[in-house]
Amino acid sequence: MAIVSSGSPAGPARPAAPVAKPGLLDPSSAPDDATTSEDTAPLQREDSLRPRRLADYIGQRELKQVLGIAVEAACSRAEALDHVLLYGPPGLGKTTMALVLAEELGVRCRITSAPALERPRDIVGLLVNLQPRELLFIDEIHRLTRVAEEILYPAMEDFRLDLTVGKGTTARTRSLPLSPFTLVGATTRAGSLSSPLRDRFGLIQRLEFYGLDDLQAIVQRAAALLQIDIDAAAALEVARRCRGTPRIANRLLRRVRDVAAVGGHGRVGAELVQQALSLHRVDGRGLDASDRRLLHLLQHGYGGGPVGLDTLAAGLGEDPATLEAVVEPFLLQQGLLQRTPRGRVITAAGIAHLEAHPEPQAA
Asked: For the whole model, what pTM was predicted?
């Protein structure tokens, strides 16, 4: 897979330490979220599961309708699509949607992430090399530096760059025109974006968790692309355990494929899915070992709560931030855990789930 590094503004050549540069990507062969050359092979396999057109994109019906109208209107006027902000939990398809938009518009997509744009010249080099109507995708856009945001403001509104040349009394400002382009920003924390940046996006859309029917269709499509013979009941079992997230569904499907290949199973059924995912301690509701450990400690170690986060983290040997950001959100969404002013409390649904899925006793 060829990744063409973007250029930098003209200036005297100066030696610099190697820096990861944003890539110029063809939507039909774009890698996953990471862009390092060492990960090219696995990213190609992941990319083979990505839909390329809106018609192939499963789920997110309202989002597809809104973006489909915007794309069609932009193409009819031969203009760049308005800037788009996509936000929502990880794994729901923000990067995939950006690549789909580029394919629908018939343009290339430059992919980068905010942490890679540490210096002004990084983002300036990207902007000056954009071709008319091209799409620039910035992942984790809430992590942009203040300087990078200031550079983006006139670029997004007026398609120009305001650069300061020289220092002190000789300093002067120059404006460079830019080709009309579309900025697609993705974030898991929309509230962390500054208001001036957020207000410059014409389309602000949230990606929701997927329903069971959509997830089953996604699993069946991925199985066909991976050449896995899977029946509908097995696809439904995978869909039930993926936390409403296509990325997790694809990951679990690969683990099922491994077990089927090693065991010599020609066709994947629901029983094989249960066997394969039980090896990875993923239960029928999608909870893994970390989730059940937290519920088990809360119920049997502290009488159901309330218990403070730091106390739970110490009992589990985990970092409090990891518990709060990684483990707790899904338990809260499923109604198995509650946050109260006094601490965490297990719910009746959480207790029932523990009774149905008891932790194995250590020998």
From this structure: 0.74
What is Dmax (Cα atoms) for the chain?
A: 77
Tens digits of residue pLDDT in 116-138: 888 888 888 888 888 899 899 99
pLDDT tens profile 41-61: 333 454 577 888 888 888 888
Report the catalytic residues. Answer: 94-95, 139, 188, 247
Which residue type occupies 180? P
Q: What percent of the chain has pLDDT over 70?
A: 82
| Residue bearing the bigger pLDDT, 269 or 44 | 269
Contact 178, 161 (CB under 8 A): yes
